[in-house]
Amino acid sequence: MKLINIADEGAGYKxxxxxxxxxxxxxxxxxxxxxxxxxxxxxxxxxxxxxxGDEFVGLAINMISGDRALLDYYAITPEKRSCGYGSKGLEVxxxxxxxxxxxxxxxxxxxSFDQEGVQLGKVLAKRxxxxxxxxxxxxxxxxxxx
Length: 146
Known about the structure:
By secondary structure, the protein is α+β, with helices and mostly antiparallel strands. The protein is 47% helix and 22% strand.
């Protein structure tokens, strides 16, 4: 199973994701789709289709703020419930974010899963956000437009 962002290569799953979203959640819990699309365009939300082979099996909609993500909506299609897809989807979603953390660590030359590396990452992030960079750190922050 894999996650595909419908704003990118997963556009073909958009209608199925919207239909599942519409049917899976009570009206009072749903955000208007046009608001969600604007959040996606602003980089504050990602709408992910869960796909097994080529078959749409669920959705994961995340609010994004900097390096943080909040799972806002999560649903499995009715015909795939009780088949292990919910658990598998959560595992894939966790791996999705672990890979982002691992890639960021690679870019910053920090072992993201080592506590000392995490602490160094915090120090470097504070320097970047304060625009107190030089050498390779400056090159990386300029490259990432931070």
